[in-house]
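thought: fold this chain, then report.
action: predict
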Amino acid sequence: MATVKGIDHISINTKDIQASIRFYADILEFRQMETVQMDGFRIVYFDVPRGGRLELFDYDGKNPQAKRGESEVGLRHLAFAVDDVKAAEEMLRKKGVTILLPATDLPAAGVKVVLFLDPNSVTLEFSQKLS
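observation:
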């Protein structure tokens, strides 16, 4: 049996590739890598700090839009570790990012989190360990 070594990449279907590129490059400060043209779509790659890649799929706006509730089965959110959730929230607010849950201590989980949306309505989380 093969051994899982870690997460290789995360893929997001985009509704607006340029807004998505600006969000992940300018707001989250992920390093944009190559763009690969496939048959009928393209993939824009980003380096995720401390390992892995993010793939933004662009179907030129032709992919159907789906809206899922927070408790429905499937992917709930993507979380990224940060050193200061409150400062991260302030930065997101200044840049006009939609905040779903302001900086909140979750003592049972041992973390402080802020939840927010990317341009594709994907829920993202910044998480900081409580001291």
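thought: worth noting. The first helix runs from residue 17 to 27.
final: tokens above.
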